[in-house]
Amino acid sequence: MLKYTVRRLLLLIPTLFFVALIVFVLSRAAPGSPFDRNENRPLPAATIERLNRTYGIDKPIHEQFILYLSNAVRFDFGSSLVRDRPVADIIGQGLPTSAQLGIQALLLALAISLPLGTISALKQNSPIDYASLFLATIGTSIPNFVIAIFAILLFAVSLHLVPVIGWGTPKHMILPTVILSLGAAAFLTRITRASMLEAIHQDYVRTARSKGLREQVVIITHVMKNALIPVATIVGPATAALVTGSFIIESIFSIPGIGREFVLSITKRDYPMIMGVYLLYAFIISVANLTVDLVYGMLDPRIKVGR
Amino acid sequence: MATITAQPQTAAELNVLHRKQRSLWMDAWHRLTRNKMAMAGLVVVVLAMFLAAFAPWIAPKDPIAQSSGTALADPFWGDPKYTNPDYPLGSDSLGRDTLSRLIWSSRVSMLVGFVPVSIIFILGVTIGMYAAFYGGWIDNLLMRLTDVMYAFPDLLFLIIIFATLRDSWIGNLMGGLVLMFVGIAIVNWVGMARLVRGQVLSLKEKEFIEAARATGARPGRIMLRHLFPNALAPVIVSLAFAIPSAMLAEATLSFLGFGIKPPTPTWGVMILEGFVHVSSTPWPVLLPAFCIAIVMLAFTALGDGLRDALDPRMKL
Questions:
Q1: Which of A214, A249, B139, B227 matches a 20 to 30 Å C-alpha distance to B211?
Q2: For B277, which DSSP code?
Q3: Which of B164, B282, B296 has the CB atom closest to A142's CB atom?
Q4: Is the Cβ pair A26, B155 closer than 8 Å?
Q5: Closest Cα in chain B to A264
Q6: What is the mean pLDDT of chain A?
Q7: More confident residue, A132 or B314
Q8: Is residue A10 packed enough to be buried (19+ CB in 10 Å), middle (13-18) or exposed (0-12)?
Q9: Cα–Cα distance between B147 and A37 in angstroms, integer?
């Protein structure tokens, strides 16, 4: 187990390396430089040259990459080309907000999907089941920015229940959190339902019933305990969905998190920022996947990790 | 002598087998037609494809023709003070006809849905089958590639592709459509190849493949006539879901401002352009949002139906 964990942690290094390499090569292959944004008032050539030298963009690409990596392992991700502040600072400032939004959304998604999926499995083909399946289909198929638009127009513009944009008070947080959680909630509901349905028809459940155990005991200790194992594995992909969802939601609602910084840095070709955010996202997603694999191994003794 | 009498018999047997094989697909088709949600989805999909194919003849106006004085008209059900009979679904802030833009946008969505998926299908099936059948370095490379791709959401890959190559020559072909096709195909073919690989790996050990080998069938024939048709069902299901997810990627990228370039109308671009004054005039945003929502739901319902019809064991 320990050996497996260490090996998986070491595998993070090549993953992050390749992500850095892809982003680095692509961003250097892009036409234009970060200093030619204003077409009407171009900077003098000498100034651009000086800027390029200051930020090391004039060196050959492999030298730049090696320099970047050797700085990155010391947690120095360079300075933003637009803000003139260290990338690590900007990310550090946005991280608490984004993390709060993401964790709230994940918890809400679990709070909605586990009971909903369980109830619709226990009452299969009932109106409740159809209603929850319908909601789950809507949640998985309609993109969250479209849902965000409907929600803003209904709850903020027409009904004035919540503010349109911004972040800080609980009232500001309601819409972004709910909308970000919907996709994950819908997906988790479908998984929970399917997994519960499978568990209900297992032999050990029939055995438990024939022993005369009360229905509640059968459902909670026999069905749910086993049905929720596959659900746990979805938390990894759900985290990835929350990460990608977060920059759309943060942009729409003007939330001062990393997601909005990410979108801004791409419009402005702020290479060091783009690199920093990509590495962070890759790290978060890899760690989420690793955690899920380890937890899966602990929950289900039939799964042997580390072989 | 025996071979002569045996021949018609095997032909008849073959005929029976052939009919049986067809009835398997017919079974699936019957299951699909009984599924009301899937049929509703199919109707919407066919309608959207019709609009996309005949957009130049159906759309009443030029989707990119601007006109001053007609900007931000309400749709016909709005306040008569702000409606304009020439613009049944209203107009955007540059005075462009919303109805025509919606119809032309369906064209982009359908192209983005079907073109990359065809590339994914061809690349994924060829490479997946080859990797599973022969193994070796191509198989290893495929597995390593999928490992890296799985550690990273598709949308992030697409964003970096678009952020960097948007202004290059390929990014300017057809207003960014070509880069969208290539980008979506690059990001998704690996998953398809891995799916096909898994299918072929398990089929390869079955008796009917052994039988085909024993009769002296060449590898190409085994792959094309025996492995491919039997691996097809999950591939079709996965393609059915790849179409809406490609459309979603386009809409999201365009909405964020990194995707298809204006003035080419797409639903995502329309939402982005209308979002500035969404609280005062919501219709230029709401209408494309409805279109995205309906088409996405339709494709998902159709995909769900196909999965239930083709693989009754898979229940989700």
A1: B139
A2: G
A3: B296
A4: no
A5: B256
A6: 82
A7: A132
A8: exposed
A9: 36
- Which residues make Cβ contacts (< 8 Å) with residue B127, sequence separation at least 6? B138, B142, B189, B193, B196
For residue A185, give Cα distances in angstroms to A200, A239, B290: 22, 12, 22
Q: Which of A139, A220, A151, A150 is nearest to A181 (CA)?
A: A139
Whether the CA torsion B92, B94, B97, B101 is positive or negative: it is: negative
One-letter amino acid at B159 equals I
Token pair of A48 as six digits: 């651009």
Contact in structure between A138 and B297 (CB atoms under 8 Å) = yes
Tokens of B250: 């386009």
Q: What token pair was written down for A276?
A: 């920093």
Distance between CA atoms of residues A116 and A102, nearest Å: 21
Between CA B307 and CA A134 the distance in angstroms is 17
**B169, B178, B164: which is closest to B250 by C-alpha?**
B178
Sign of CA dihedral B113, B114, B119, B121: positive
From the list B164, B251, B257, the residue facing A29 with the nearest CB is B164
Distance CA B184, CA B250 (A): 9
Between the alpha carbon of residue B213 and those of residues A171, B82, B198, the distances in Å are 68, 73, 20
Residue pairs spanning A and B at CB distance below 8 A: 110
Residue B43 pLDDT greater than 90, yes or no:
yes
- Give the chain B residue nearest A196 (alpha carbons): B316
Rounded to an integer, what distance in angstroms lies between the CA atom of residue A120 and that of residue A227? 14
pLDDT digits (tens, 9 = 90+) for A4-23: 888 878 878 887 888 888 88
Confidence of residue B210 (pLDDT cuts 50, 70, 90): confident
Q: Which of A101-105, B90-94, B141-145 has the highest mean pLDDT?
A: A101-105
Average pLDDT over residues A63-85: 80
Q: Report how far apart, in Å, the C-alpha atoms of A96 and of each of A178, A255, A262, B291 are.
A: 18, 12, 15, 36
Please state, in angstroms and rounded to a whole number, the distance separating the CA atoms of residues A208 and A138.
Answer: 36
pLDDT tens figures, B1-37:
444 444 555 555 555 555 555 567 777 888 888 888 8
Are B252 and A190 within 8 A, CB to CB? no
B251 touches chain A (CB under 8 A): yes
- Tell me the three state secondary structure of residue B91: strand
Q: Min CA distance, A253 vs chain B (Å)?
A: 12
- How far apart, in Å, are the Cα atoms of B158 and each of A81, B93, B224, B250? 23, 29, 32, 9
Contacts from B209-213 at CB under 8 Å and sequence distance 24+?
none
Backbone angles phi, psi at A281, to 5 degrees: -60, -45
Contact between chains at B153 and A157 (C-beta distance less than 8 A): no
The CA distance from A261 to A148, in Å, is 19
CB-based contact (8 Å) between B49 and chain A? Answer: no
* Record: contact B163-A248, CB cut-off 8 A: no
Report the predicted TM-score, pTM, of the whole model to 2 decimal places.
Answer: 0.82
Contact A191 B285 (CB under 8 A): no
Burial of A262 by CB count in 10 Å (0-12 exposed, 13-18 middle, 19+ buried)?
Answer: buried
Kindly report the nearest CA distance between residue A89 and chain B, in angstroms: 22
Does B263 sit behind a cis peptide bond, omega within 30 degrees of 0 on the bond before it?
Answer: yes
Q: Angle at Cα A220 formed by Cα A218 and Cα A222, nearest 5°?
A: 55
